[in-house]
Structure formats: C-alpha cells, structure tokens
Design brief:
Elements: E1 15-19, H1 24-36, E2 41-48, H2 54-69, E3 73-78, H3 81-88, H4 92-110, E4 115-117, H5 122-135, E5 148-149, E6 152-153, H6 161-171, H7 187-202, H8 206-231, E7 236-239, E8 242-246, H9 247-251, H10 256-264, H11 274-278, E9 288-290, E10 294-299, E11 302-307, E12 319-325, E13 338-342, E14 351-354, E15 360-361, E16 370-371, H12 372-379, H13 383-388, E17 390-396, E18 399-406, E19 409-410, E20 422-428
Parallel strand pairs: 1-2, 1-4, 2-3, 4-6
Antiparallel strand pairs: 5-6, 7-8, 8-11, 9-10, 10-11, 12-20, 13-20, 14-17, 15-16, 17-18, 18-19
Helix pairs in contact: 1-6, 3-4, 5-7, 5-8
C-alpha cells in the first residue's frame, strides 16, 4: 500500500502534519508515515469535538497515547462544537469541519509544516461524488475529492477502504470505531452502508471504475474552467463585492443555462433554480431568487448577485440629525452621505422610512414635483441602491412633507438660502 500513496516527489524533504482521529483510515495513515520515515518531520494533530461524550474523550486520549508511545510530536485541542454551530447558525457537521480545518492550518503555519495530510480514501471520494449528484452540484461536483488543496494533501485517495482494512489487519494496527459510522440517517453513511453494497453486487470493481470516470470528469472540468476563464470580464465579473452577469452576452450563448449554473453555483444556487433564473432573461427588471447566502436580481442589462443582508428592503441606517449655525458651514456642498437643509423650515423630530411608490418630492434645483421612483430612474439606481434609500419626513401645518430622499437629494423647499441661520445636517448611520 505504501507504493500507491499519493505524495509530493520531494516528500522526504518536507514536514508533514497528520490529521488523526483514531479511526481506521487515519491510524493506517499514521502507521505508514511513522513506520517508513516518509518525510523529514512528521507530527500528529488530533481534535476532540465534544460531540459523543465518553467516546469522543476515549478517541482523543487514544491518539495522544499512541503518539506518545512512539515518540511522535502530537498537537491536540478540544472544541465546543455545538456552541460554535449555534453561534454561527450552521450544522454541527459544518461546524466541526470549519473548526478542524481552521485549526489544522493554524498549527501548520505556526510550526513550519509544509503539508497537512488527511486520510480520505477512494471510497470517500466516490461517496462525495454521489452526494453531489443528489444535490445537483454540476460537473465540478462530480470530480470527487481533490488530492491537494492549499496545504492539504490526501495520500490515501487512490486506495479503497477494503485495502486499508487488510493493511490494518496485517499490521495489527489499533484503531477506534466511531459508532455513528453504522447509523444511516446521515446521507454519506446511507450511501456507504446501503447503496455501495448493491453496486458491488452488480460490479465488484465499481469503485475503480468510477475512479476512472472521476479522472475523466476532472479533465473535462479543467477544459471548461479554461473556457470560462476566457469569458470572465465580458460574460461575468465581480465589482465591489457584487457579481454581474451580462444579459446581452448570455443571450449569445447556446448553452446559457450551463454558464448560469457555472457562475451561480459558487453563490450557493442549486441546479433546480437555474432554469427559473434563465427565464428571467426576458422578464421585467426586479425579479429575484435567493440561495442561503446570496440573492440574484434581474436589473436592466445585468443579473446582479448580492450577499444576503446587503440586499434588503429593511437595510438603511439610523437617522442622524445635527444642527449647527449657518456660519459653521464652509461649503454648501455637503460631504458624501450627508445632506444640508434649513433647520428652521422643518419641524422636529424628523422621521425616516422606506420609500413608497406614491411618494413625490421636488428635487433640489427642479420645478414641479417628481415621483421618487422616477427620480431613481433618472439617477440610474440599481435595486440594491434603491433598497438603501430612506425618505425623511417632517410634519408641517398638519401634513407630512418629504424633506429629503437620503442620502441623495433634498426637497427644494427646504434648501439653504441667504435667510438661513441654522443648518440641519442629515445622515443615515
């Protein structure tokens, strides 16, 4: 099995940190590295996620003892995974993943390790392929697990779990069994425990067969990535945290749904939404769809992709009003984000609210009123910008009047002139 490991050509010159949980895969990886002196320096990193009570504690102690008995450097830590998951509103599985990979990289960088070795095997890679197929992850999702990613390497990726079991039995390698591996309420475990045995009955070599398919998928993905790279800047680009998809360029593509999927999958959009988003090409501006993390909006000539929370009808700051003497104002042109109005022409307190379709005001320097929505058209505001605007009002003679459309323009009737003695500085914090 040693000869089939995937390792850098100069591994013997490298310092490698082994991620070891105590399970059969990671213990076989640790045994191979320690027994065969495969690198210049080897160490173990192990984590207690505090998820399985005494079993987690036992795994944790087992790995540390194994390393100590063999004089292997061992880094260890304990996480309150459930608290982290609750704090970040994510699943415990996702929390555990974020915690361990973040900590592994921290240990590696602080202690001079060139690589972090993870014990993923061929079974894991094929399981991932099936999970991504079920999720509609597209071509990139069916390329399995990559051998390397940054500091991460996966030396066992070409080796099946059966081969690992035989190696462990032959070398009498101790390991700990995670009881949750036999539970099938997790998708991965169900694929492993129920689906794979059926495939093996049909084709005893199905893992190796799919492994070759994964290689072909990866090659196809590499080709398409190159083509997509050539389209960046014309079909798709990012600017100031917002993604843009040119509708004009998208119309020129014969496989527009594929390219939409290619772009939007990185923002969390699954394949079921792509045809619906594609239909928006010929729809009126304003239509939108959301993933767990982002919102895509049909806005005139583009699809625009915003981070959720950034695009919100409820966003906009708290109204702030400061009153100063007119002689304290050096220039009548206010700083960005602020507006100046004659303080004696308004009645306090002022109120800020979301604009409405019926709202009208007289923009500074114009005659006659204009609908706020038409003013937005004149200003060429996109939907995000419109969502952040607030209408500031005052009560005057028993009626509500718009003082300004913050932070864009004041109403002409509240402008500063030669008679102004006090200035109200309006801003949204």
């Amino acid at each position: 099995m040693r000869n089939r490991l995937l390792l850098p050509d100069d591994a013997h010159k490298k310092s490698i940190l082994l991620a070891v949980s105590g399970g059969i895969d990671s213990m076989s990886l640790a045994h191979i590295f320690v027994k065969n002196n495969l690198c210049k320096r080897v160490a173990i990193a192990t984590v207690n996620f505090s998820l399985r009570g005494e079993e987690s504690d036992g795994d944790f102690a087992f790995v540390k003892e194994w390393a100590s008995e063999r004089g292997v450097e061992c880094f260890s830590t304990i996480f309150d995974t459930k608290s982290y998951a609750a704090e970040h509103s994510i699943s415990t599985q996702m929390a555990a993943r974020e915690l361990r990979y973040g900590w592994f990289e921290q240990i590696a960088r602080e202690n001079g390790f060139d690589h972090i070795a993870i014990a993923h095997n061929l079974n894991d890679s094929v399981e991932t392929l099936f999970i991504n197929l079920l999720r509609g992850a597209g071509l990139r999702g069916i390329t399995g697990i990559s051998y390397s990613n940054g500091l991460i390497i996966r030396p066992l990726l070409n080796i099946t779990r059966e081969e690992i079991v035989r190696y462990v039995e032959k070398n009498a390698i101790p390991y700990r069994e995670d009881a949750t591996n036999s539970e099938s309420h997790y998708v991965r475990n169900r694929i492993r425990n129920e689906i794979f045995p059926q495939f093996k009955e049909i084709n005893p070599s199905f893992l190796e067969t799919i492994s070759r398919d994964i290689s072909h998928f990866s090659q196809a993905e590499a080709i398409l990535s190159k083509v997509f790279k050539e389209k960046e800047g014309t079909l798709y680009w990012q600017e100031d945290g917002v993604g843009y998809i040119s509708i004009e360029k998208l119309r020129e593509e014969s496989e527009r749904e594929y390219w939409l999927h290619r772009i939007l999958e990185q923002y969390g959009f699954n394949s079921t939404l792509i045809p619906k988003i594609s239909d928006l090409i010929d729809a009126q501006p304003g239509k939108r769809f959301s993933s767990d993390t982002h919102t895509v909006i049909r806005d005139r000539d583009y699809f625009k992709i915003y981070l959720n929370g950034l695009f919100s009808e409820d966003c906009g700051g708290k109204l702030s009003v400061d009153i100063v003497n007119r002689n304290e104002i050096v220039s009548l042109v206010p700083p960005e984000g602020k507006l100046y109005v004659d303080a004696d022409r308004v009645q306090f307190p002022l109120e800020a609210r979301v604009w409405q379709l019926s709202d009208r005001f007289t923009p500074l320097g114009m005659r006659g009123s204009k609908k706020v929505s038409d003013f937005f058209v004149d200003m060429k505001l996109d939907l995000l910008q419109k969502g952040r605007v607030r209408v500031v009002t005052t009560k005057k003679n028993g009626t509500t009047q718009i003082v300004c459309v913050a932070p864009l323009r004041i109403d002409d009737s509240f402008k500063i002139d030669s008679q102004t003695t006090r200035v109200a500085i309006i801003s949204l914090e």
